[in-house]
Design goal:
260 residues, alpha+beta, NADH Oxidase, binds flavin mononucleotide
Length: 260
Amino acid sequence: MEEVPEIAKWTWKIIKERRAIRDFIKDKPVPDDYLYRIIEAACQAPSPENYQPWRFIIIKDKEMLRFIRDKAIGACIRMFGVKVPRTEAIKRFWYMVEGEEDVFSKFYRIETSLHVMANGWRMCYYYDAPVMIAVVVDTTNLGEHGWYRMPTTGEWPIGSKQLDLTFVQAGLAVQNMWLMAHALGLGMCVHNFETEEAQDETEIAERLGIPYPRWRIAVLASIGWPARPRILGPKRYTPEQVTFSERFGNPYKFEKKPTW
Ligand SMILES: Cc1cc2nc3c(=O)[nH]c(=O)nc-3n(C[C@H](O)[C@H](O)[C@H](O)COP(=O)(O)O)c2cc1C
């Protein structure tokens, strides 16, 4: 039987134990060499023709963090305090309850989840974390000199399929950052409440000096030291549930499963 490489076991451990961390030790700084490696990990992500459409803005200024946090709190209140009916919210927040496994969870029930989302409190971590990173992408694929256009042989109008691909690339970069941060013992959470509404994204982009809308904010991420350990996450689909054989909907039968 083939020996499973140790590095595969470590890689799986890092992937499996990475979590969305939303509680940080307030104001404990993240050393720059750690930030460097996290951004370097993002830069190692693949992109079509190695286009690398990403740029990163490291935000430590408390005023800016407050501004972004308040945008998220506002959007959260508008969504879960006003727009989304309670019955729907209860269904949507299953992941919050299931994802908590420690002391906090003893009182962290669905009612608490509803409450902290409806009044926006759950988004306070944006300000508590010492660092936020804005992941910004070039949506035009025009390149540094304005001549480059991501080639496509498809029928897609310029700016649609390419735009999707741009955000795919951002996602790959962000996941590298998340895994690297976790491996360093840091906590990270990617968020999007603050940019969910166009007006908010525009205002944040303007404050950050982003040449918007050519360059857009893919996501923002808070990074810091976790206030408490969190390893178990909300349940995921199993490969059996999401994998098809040859045709969509036709279950794939795995002959063997890993034992490690
Ligand atoms: C693109 C994206 C957007 C997200 N937006 C938010 C957000 O606005 N606020 C938040 O607290 N968490 C946000 N999350 C974190 C998810 O809720 C979390 O990753 C998911 O529930 C799975 O939990 P886990 O990461 O701990 O496994 C976001 C995650 C992704 C990938």
